[in-house]
Amino acid sequence: MAHPSSIDVLNMLVEAGLEREKAEPLAKEILTRTEAKETLATKSDLWRVALTQTGATIAGVGVLIALLGAV
Questions:
Q1: pTM here?
Q2: Which tens digits make up the pLDDT trace of 20-69?
Q3: What is the distance of C-alpha 55 from the center of its chain?
Q4: Residues 23, 51: one domain?
Q5: Secondary structure (3-state) at 6
Q6: For the chain, what is the domain count?
Q7: CB-based contacts of 68: which residues, under 8 Å, 6+ apart?
Q8: Are the beta carbons of 31 and 9 closer than 8 angstroms?
Q9: Is residue 33 located within the same domain as residue 55?
């Protein structure tokens, strides 16, 4: 099944009883499923970034300790 486009969302809002003039700005602001998948981060994405940042921080601290320990 194809994912809805902004035009499909607009048509759904109009069919639900909203006046076209009021439905148009809403349809432009509503993300379709495809747009959401391309735009929004998932929990998995956020965890991956957090773990990468944590690993980089730990590695940086390890380098500093090694450098300062050699002094």
A1: 0.45
A2: 999 998 888 887 777 788 888 999 999 999 999 999 999 999 999 999 98
A3: 23
A4: no
A5: helix
A6: 2
A7: none
A8: no
A9: no
